[in-house]
Amino acid sequence: MLGFTKKEFVVLDAVPEDYAALANLHARNFPRGWSTSELEALAGQSTVTILSARLVGKPRLGPAAFNIIRQTDHEAEILSIAVDTTYRRSGLGLQLMRDAIRRLQADRVETLMLEVDATNVAAIHMYDKLGFETVGNRPGYYAAASDDPKANRATALVMRLELN
Ligand SMILES: CC(C)(COP(=O)(O)OP(=O)(O)OC[C@H]1O[C@@H](n2cnc3c(N)ncnc32)[C@H](O)[C@@H]1OP(=O)(O)O)[C@@H](O)C(=O)NCCC(=O)NCCS
Fold it and tell me: Which DSSP helix (H) or strand (E) runs through 157?
């Protein structure tokens, strides 16, 4: 009998062989993509962690998602997170965020911050679900979606989660 199998993902620290595929995934999700060398430079910073998720049992498929986190002694920040469109709404975004939160709590980091486009309903719902609170906004923070110089730049919400 054919049955529905829920997709399972494993979250690991990204390795240099992942960077090109992750840059590709980043470029597909954000108007200003990060190149492979920019990801390499980020990964080389001791404060930055790049988490990469893969579909269990499909080692040849590229990364399905990433989460990039900057961490100092007491505070951390989500620099970028994205899930490939194929795998959206299967809990992977939450899985990547919860993995990052567990690691930060183990390191006794107290606060996790992020900025999100105020029109990004999917991401805001995900952060709400994790308990993030909106603590401010930055009008004009993001480049406009169109090249028209008169197009409005989007507002960023600043969100915070207390970790301990
Ligand atoms: C935001 C993003 C990472 C969510 O990833 P995902 O794997 O689809 O999210 P999940 O399946 O874990 O969903 C978690 C919760 O987020 C919310 N959510 C996710 N997608 C949503 C959508 N399209 N509309 C409304 N709520 C949504 C829901 O509350 C969902 O819980 P539910 O499925 O139980 O209702 C993904 O949409 C994405 O990569 N977007 C493009 C990049 C981006 O915007 N990154 C955030 C930058 S700040």
Answer: strand 154-162
